[in-house]
Design brief:
6 helices; Pept_tRNA_hydro; Pept_tRNA_hydro_sf; Pept_tRNA_hydro_CS
């Protein structure tokens, strides 16, 4: 696989009960990218669904993937798809929900702590490295004393749903900017 190929994994949980929850914003961003580039998802033996698209005519290739395992066991499917595509962690972008960032804000980074995110922890554990790109899609902190695990598994509230399409669009833009412009330029644009 060439160096201009990137695996873009949107984290989430499988099934309709989780489809519109905060924890599944990674899936939603990857769906936005697939829609934008006319990609069609097909099942893959790695416990993912995947779609291959290009950014522009002849541009870099994105293999968009959504894990079909539960969030806490995201590592094996991601590692299997990377192996199948012959890609290293430098060509992996993981899109995930981030409670430590306000709703509709985006932060981009390579490596570092997983911040308590069990999907990221499992990917880092299985890959043996934290050194991959991340699109941290802000979902905000839970209100009051609500348990974080309960909060992330709830659907977005009515106010958030109004601006969610714009948030997903900007997150998709951030993924593309990481690929076409590099981390530093993309950070300057989206932070």
């Amino acid at each position: 696989m060439s160096a201009d190929t990137y695996l873009v994994v949107g984290l989430g949980n499988p099934g309709p009960d989780y489809a519109r929850t905060r924890h599944n914003i990674g899936h939603m961003v990857v769906d936005e990218l697939a829609d934008r580039h006319s990609g069609t998802f097909t099942a893959h033996k790695s416990k993912c669904v995947q779609a291959s698209v290009r950014i522009g005519y002849g541009g870099p290739k994105m293999v968009l993937a959504k894990t079909t395992s539960y969030m806490n066991v995201s590592g094996p499917p991601v590692a299997a798809l990377m192996k199948f595509l012959s890609l290293g962690p430098e060509n992996l972008i993981v899109v995930h929900d981030e409670v430590d960032i306000a709703f509709d804000a985006i932060k981009l980074k390579r490596g570092g702590s997983e911040g308590g995110h069990n999907g990221l922890k499992d990917i880092s554990r299985v890959l043996g490295t934290r050194d991959y790109l991340r699109v941290r899609a802000g979902i905000g902190r839970p209100p009051g004393r609500m348990d974080t695990a309960k909060y992330v598994l709830q659907p977005f509230n009515a106010t958030e749903r109004e601006t969610l399409p714009l948030h997903l669009d900007r997150c998709a833009d951030a993924v593309e900017a990481l690929i076409t412009d590099g981390l530093t330029t993309a950070q300057n644009k989206f932070h």
